[in-house]
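name: query_chain
kind: protein
chains: 1
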Amino acid sequence: MALQESGEMYLETIYVLSQKSNAVRAIDIGEYMGFSKPSVSRALGLLKDDGYITKDENGYIKLTESGEAHAKTIYERHTILSTLFIRLGVDEKTATEDACRIEHYISDKTFNAIKAHMEEHNV
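structure:
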């Protein structure tokens, strides 16, 4: 099933938090994203039902193989687009916010062209 932007944001958040700690909990996700416990609980339930995450008996959340692959893709888009915008002269806050919006809608074809251009020109 194709994820919506909100689902992708949750996967990306879980991925980022898991890089800092092996123990990611719903409360950590809520604090990071600024969302309420019921909102986080509902989203995590949907991600679990779709096979993107698992939750153990202690409440720790892990990305499944497909969840991690999707999260890495979104995170890569975010970091590359943010870097591009900053190098174009956009302030970091705006660059990050814009990258966060664009990362969910940009086509693979366009993103791969941007990525190749940046690599070719050491941007």
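note: The chain has two domains: 5-69, 73-120.
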